[in-house]
Design a protein that fits this description.
The complex is a heterodimer of chains A (298) and B (294).
Chain A (H helix, E strand, L loop, with lengths): L1 H29 L7 H19 L2 H25 L7 H23 L5 E2 L8 E3 L2 E3 L1 H23 L1 H11 L1 H6 L4 H27 L1 E2 L3 H16 L4 H21 L5 H15 L8 H12 L1
Antiparallel strand pairs in A: 1-4, 2-3
Helix pairs in contact in A: 1-5, 1-8, 1-9, 1-10, 2-3, 2-4, 2-8, 2-9, 3-4, 3-8, 5-6, 5-8, 6-8, 9-10, 10-11
Chain B lengths: L1 H25 L7 H17 L5 H23 L4 H21 L1 E6 L2 E6 L4 E2 L3 H4 L4 H22 L3 H11 L1 H6 L4 H27 L9 H14 L5 H16 L8 H15 L18
Antiparallel strand pairs in B: 1-2, 2-3
Helix pairs in contact in B: 1-6, 1-9, 1-10, 1-11, 2-3, 2-4, 2-9, 3-9, 6-9, 10-11
Classes of the chains: A mainly alpha (298), B mainly alpha (294).
Chain lengths: 298, 294
């Protein structure tokens, strides 16, 4: 029974990770870029919206939409400064370092807007309930459903719309796409804005289940999103969800049976193990496997 | 005066950290594990001088060797992953090391007080230099002697065949492999050498500031380590030194008067350098070469 409760807690908490992993997998899986400023963008958009709310009291829906808009805009700013100018052999690394510089900049701005270090975040979700002996948090259940719903939107945009086709084309071969007349700058901005919108929805839901925002939220988002996405598999949308749930499951069980201080060590050991044994992640995309197979064959 | 000595000390230690990433970057590996090796060097040499009362030189050597041993071990599995996957895998390694230092407790009683590593409280009282009567300028001198030795060796490396082999692997693995270079040997050797330099830097850092804890070894420092050679350029070994002086000396120290705005300007300046100097900071001293991309 205790094990079951731990697993339920883990799975429900893991849905937050899944949401973050989804927003990450667009940039990493499709664009093949690491955006270290991802979490800081979400933090800044949340803090900015709270700040506007404190001035004009725009209400919970105002905060929601303002977060989405500001996060998309900040993401475009990050893309124009860090990712658009860099391509070529070290392009991915150089843009990662650039995004690191922006990360510090955005965090500093957040601390301007958040002088008290913490602020309460409005919560709208209903309370928890007991199912026989099992304690279930409704808000986290809601998070899980949203994660599944967002995956389907994501899937639709990526595989059924024109933009999704162009996006996949640019990520597959940027040079070729350019020669065929694709405006890759616009497509890349679109991808970043899209990931910002997804991230903002995820951040809004997570913050309202936590009902507070702290300066550590940004880094937490980046790290957990990255780890959950890597566990699940790069470039695989169901993989992002499964990776998040798996991460939650591992964390809650480790906390229960080994102690909280071993939580992160175990997570990273599993990540290292999976990366070395199966570099594509649990459900790594076929594309990645093919690339790898090709390079090994040569 | 002490303030300037402190700045020189920081620049020296960060140069070692940057050079350890530089040698890996020559082979085309982007590693965030350097800070993990740095932590191993800092903790092991600190334990040796504080708990076992070793002399500083064998302690530093042992710290560097232990770090290079771990780098050797990390090198093999890391060969299986490339590019951004290697970045993530090495981040995972660095975080594991950091979390171990977070939980690492080894305290003994000495002269009536408890000394040693105290988990989340960090490793305090690494007082080899003060108890043996070194003053700050001697410590700075020691650090810079090591920096000079490491830089001279890396500079020399570029003048012999081994350097050409490293760069060949970095430029085109396939071509290097087909001309008979053993990729595994080269990459693991570069990783081991990088681990040695980072471990040396960690040992020097721990003794120079007399206090280390897990916050020193976060992903932030790992990103700093790899950003020095990238910002400075891999043309030659001086690029890394220039980048450290640019970031630690100019952006962090000289801009202190900007107070809270410093980090905001800092981010923008790094990005400007990245965008307008694709060959790195060393290109200041060269004629511009417009045909070359990053």
């Amino acid at each position: 029974m205790e094990f079951l409760q731990t697993c339920i807690d883990g799975l429900l908490f893991g849905s937050a990770y899944s949401l973050l992993a989804l927003s990450f997998s667009l940039l990493f899986g499709v664009m093949k870029r690491i955006n270290l400023a991802f979490g800081s963008t979400l933090l800044l958009s949340a803090v900015f919206s709270l700040w506007i709310d404190s001035l004009f009291s725009i209400g919970i829906f105002g905060i929601f939409f303002l977060m989405i808009a500001s996060s998309a805009l900040i993401n475009i700013y990050v893309e124009k400064l860090c990712f658009y100018p860099h391509s070529g052999k070290y392009g991915a690394t150089v843009s990662m370092i650039s995004s690191f510089a922006i990360w510090m900049q955005l965090d500093e701005m957040s601390s301007f807007l958040l002088p008290d270090r913490t602020a309460s975040f409005p919560s709208f979700l209903p309370d928890s309930f007991f199912l026989k002996d099992l304690f279930i948090r409704i808000d986290q259940l809601f998070l899980f459903l949203i994660a599944v719903f967002m995956t389907s939107i994501f899937f639709y945009v990526l595989y059924k719309t024109n933009y999704g086709l162009l996006l996949r084309g640019v990520s597959f071969d940027g040079e070729l796409a350019k020669k065929l007349g694709v405006n890759s700058g616009k497509i890349s901005s679109f991808a970043f804005a899209f990931s910002g919108i997804f991230g903002a929805i995820a951040a809004f839901l997570i913050l309202s289940t936590e009902s507070q925002v702290t300066p550590f939220f940004g880094f937490w988002c980046t790290l957990k999103g990255l780890v959950a996405m890597m566990l699940g598999g790069i470039g695989s949308l169901p993989g992002a969800i499964i990776g998040g749930l798996f991460l939650g499951l591992v964390e809650s069980n480790v906390i229960n049976y080994l102690g909280a201080e071993y939580r992160d060590i175990c997570t990273y050991l599993i990540l290292l193990f999976i990366l070395v044994v199966k570099p594509g992640g649990i459900m790594g995309s076929a594309l990645l496997r093919d690339e790898r197979a090709a390079s090994e064959r040569i | 005066m002490d303030y300037y000595l402190g700045v020189f000390q920081t620049i020296g230690v960060h140069t070692l950290l940057g050079l350890s990433a530089y040698i890996l970057l020559l082979t085309g590996q982007v590693s965030m594990a350097q800070i993990g090796f740095f932590a191993i060097g800092a903790y092991s040499s600190g334990v040796l001088t504080v708990i076992f009362s070793w002399n500083i030189y064998p302690a530093l050597a042992f710290g560097a060797l232990l770090a290079s041993f771990f780098a050797f071990l990390v090198g093999f599995p890391a060969l299986r992953v490339k590019g951004l996957m290697l970045v993530i895998a090495t981040i995972a390694f660095s975080e594991i090391v950091r979390l171990i230092t977070f939980n690492f407790v080894w305290m003994v009683e000495k002269d009536g007080i408890m000394v040693g590593a105290e988990g989340a409280q960090g490793f305090r009282e690494i007082r080899y230099f003060t108890t043996n009567g070194w003053d700050s300028s001697q410590v700075v001198l020691l650090i810079w002697i090591f920096v000079a030795i490491v830089m001279a060796m890396l500079w020399w490396l570029d003048r012999v065949k081994a350097g050409a082999v490293l760069r060949a692997v970095g430029n085109d693995e396939l071509a290097a492999q087909s001309s008979g270079i053993n990729l595994t040997t080269v990459k693991v050797a570069a990783m081991t050498a990088g681990g040695f330099i980072a471990g040396l830097g960690g040992g020097l850092y721990a003794h120079a500031v007399s206090y280390v804890d897990h916050i020193t070894f976060t992903i932030l420092m790992a990103t700093f380590a790899i950003s020095y050679p990238i910002l400075g350029g891999t043309k030659n070994v001086f690029g890394t030194l220039l980048a450290v002086i640019f970031i630690q000396g100019i952006l962090i120290e000289a801009f202190r008067f900007l107070e809270d705005w410093r980090l905001i300007i800092f981010g923008l300046l790094i990005i400007l350098v990245m965008n307008f100097m694709p060959d790195g900071l060393v290109s200041i001293f060269k004629k511009s070469n417009p045909g070359k991309g990053n």
